[in-house]
Every structure is written in C-alpha cells, then in structure tokens.
Amino acid sequence: MASYFDELNIRTTRQQPQGYNIDTSDFMNTSTSARSTVPEEDHFMQVIRQVVHTFLLGGFRQQNSGDYVQEEFLDNLISQLLEESQASAKGPPPASDRFIKALPNIPPTAIASEEQCIICKDDLHTSTCITKMPCGHLYDKECLVPWLKLHNTCPMCRLSVESEEQVRQEEEEAQRDWMYA
Questions:
Q1: How far apart are CA 119 and CA 167, in angstroms?
Q2: CB contact set of 141 (below 8 Å; sequence gap of 6+)
Q3: pLDDT higher than 50, residue 174
Q4: What distance in Å separates the CA atoms of residue 87 and residue 73, rounded to the nearest whole number?
Q5: 18 φ, ψ to 5°?
Q6: Tens digit of pLDDT for each residue in 59-89?
Q7: What is the 3-state secondary structure of the chain?
Q8: Which of 46, 61, 76 is at the close of a domain?
C-alpha cells in the first residue's frame, strides 16, 4: 500500500527519523566530549543531562539565592499535603472483639465446591475454618479476622459491622441506664 505522498507524487524533504536505543552510559555521562551522531539525539541528550543535573545531582541548590524562598514554599506545600492526606486516610474503625468472637463457623460440607475466599482466592471446600459475615459472604477465618482487626466492614460489599466504638457507647448507655433506672 502506497502512502499519501507516493500516490500524489509528492517528494518529501524531511527524512524519517531512525529509531535508536539510548545507552545508559550515554544517559548518565556528564561529559560533553562524547557527542551523538544524530542531531535530534544530541539536543535530546543535552536536555536529559540538564534534568539529571538539576534533580538527581543537586543542581537546584547551586542556583540563585531567590530559589531558597521557592524551595521553602515547596517544602511547606508538600508538608501540608502530607498532613492532609494522613488526616483523611483513617478509614473505617476496627470491628469489635465481641463481633469477631461471635463469627459463625461453617463446615466445608455446607458450601458449594466452587466457592472461593474473596481475600486469598483459595477454594473454601478445602479450608478447615470457614466463616460467614452477616451479609452472607463466606471467607477463610484466617483471612477475615486480620481484615476485621483493621476495618469494621465486609471486604466484598463494605457492609458495616459492630466496631469497638459502638460497643463502648452501648456499655456507657447501659451504665447510665442502670444508674438512673
């Protein structure tokens, strides 16, 4: 199949760039004595070397004294963003110990042979200890308990279960009711 230019008998003055692989020694070489034979590569390598000097070799610290203000601003901005991301990354609280201890044990013979644990992807009919969440999802107990010690949700559907905070509030209410009843 001929190209558009061939079909219309148009000669192109621009040559097609040849593909090349950059050698890592050329990439990291900071001397200017080894020049490239391809003009585009020469300019490209100069830009890459400048970027390497600026960021990896600490070239930004040797610039004008006005850059100190910019560097301080960027440090403050990064610190603020990290603090905000850590503050909002709390997630759901852990499930209560009472809920974890009350998880039902399901015998392997009571489930279908194709059922898999959603966490570890092992076949549940080969597992020795299977448990069921209130939403109906089945898991290896060895997989689910560590999850519940970090989150009070089902790993599959995110149904919330009892958390330690809820247990504490219930106990406080029961204590208040006892005192004022």
A1: 27
A2: 103, 105, 129, 130, 131
A3: yes
A4: 21
A5: -85, 140
A6: 555 555 556 667 787 777 777 777 776 666 5
A7: CCCHHHHCCCCCCCCCCCCCCCCHHHHHCCCCCCCCCCHHHHHHHHHHHHHHHHHHCCHHHHCCCCHHHHHHHHHHHHHHHHHHHHHCCCCCCCECHHHHHCCCEECHHHCCCCCECCCCCCEHHHCCCEEECCCCCEEEHHHHHHHHCCCCECCCCCCECCEHHHHHHHHHHHHHHHHHC
A8: 61
Tokens encoding 10: 């148009």
Any domain includes 103: yes
Range of the domain at 51: 23-61
State yes or no: pLDDT of 51 exceeds 60. Answer: yes
Tokens found for residue 160: 């919330």
20-30 confidence digits (pLDDT tens) = 444 555 544 55
User: How many CA atoms within 13 Å lie on the side-chain side of 100?
Assistant: 19
Question: Positive or negative, the Cα torsion across 143, 145, 147, 152?
Answer: positive
**What is the distance between the alpha carbons of residues 129 and 161, in angstroms, rounded to a whole number?**
20
Angstrom distance (rounded) from CA 122 to CA 110: 16
Alpha-carbon span 146 to 174, nearest angstrom: 29
Residues 44 and 117 both lie in one domain: no
As given in the structure block, the two tokens for residue 5 are 């230019």
